[in-house]
Write the C-alpha cells for this entry.
Amino acid sequence: EDKVVQSPLSLVVHEGDTVTLNCSYEVTNFRSLLWYKQEKKAPTFLFMLTSSGIEKKSGRLSSILDKKELFSILNITATQTGDSAIYLCAVIGSSNTGKLIFGQGTTLQVKP
Amino acid sequence: DAGVIQSPRHEVTEMGQEVTLRCKPISGHNSLFWYRQTMMRGLELLIYFNNNVPIDDSGMPEDRFSAKMPNASFSTLKIQPSEPRDSAVYFCASSFQVRDWDTGELFFGEGSRLTVL
C-alpha cells in the first residue's frame, strides 16, 4: 500500500531558528512529490519535486528530493511566527491515477 | 479567479440526517478531488473525478457516502445517514491534469466543517 510518513509530527522552535522537516514515502512508480502549507484553512502549494538532487527554493524555504532513498526534506531558515502552520507532504505514483497521497503533516509552531 | 468555492462552511447536524456538501472548482480545471481531514487520520482522499468522471472512489468510507459531478463546474458529496464519526473538515480541490498521472498543483477550497451530534 502506498504511504507517506512525515517527521516530526510536531515541532516548536523560536524565531530565527532553522528547521528541517522530513518526508519519506513508499509508492508504486513514483512520479512527483509535493509540499503544502496549511494555516488556519486550506492547504496552499509550496513545491513540486520530480527529480533527485535538484533543490527548489522560494525565499527562506527550500526542498530537495532523494529518489534513491525515497525521501524529501523541507528546510525553513530564519523562521518567523508566520511560518507556524501544518506542513503537508504528498506523493503521486502512476498507480495512483493522478491522486495525491498525503502524509500526516508536521505541525510547526514558531515562538517569538 | 474566485478559487475553489465550497458550501456550507460549517454544518452542524444530528445523527441520521442527510448532509450535502457542494463544490465549484476553478474554471478550466479538469480534475476534482474530495478530501476529508481529521486529527487522527490527516488528509484522506475520498474520491477523484477527471473530466466529470469518477476515476477512483476507493477512499469513500462506505455506502453512506456518495459523490456526483454532473458538469465541469459543480460537484456534491452526500452523506446519508450521517454519523458522529463523520465529523471532520471536508475539502474540495481542483487541478488541471495534463497526463494521466500528473495531477499538478492542487487548489483547495476553504473546507466544510461538519459536526454530527
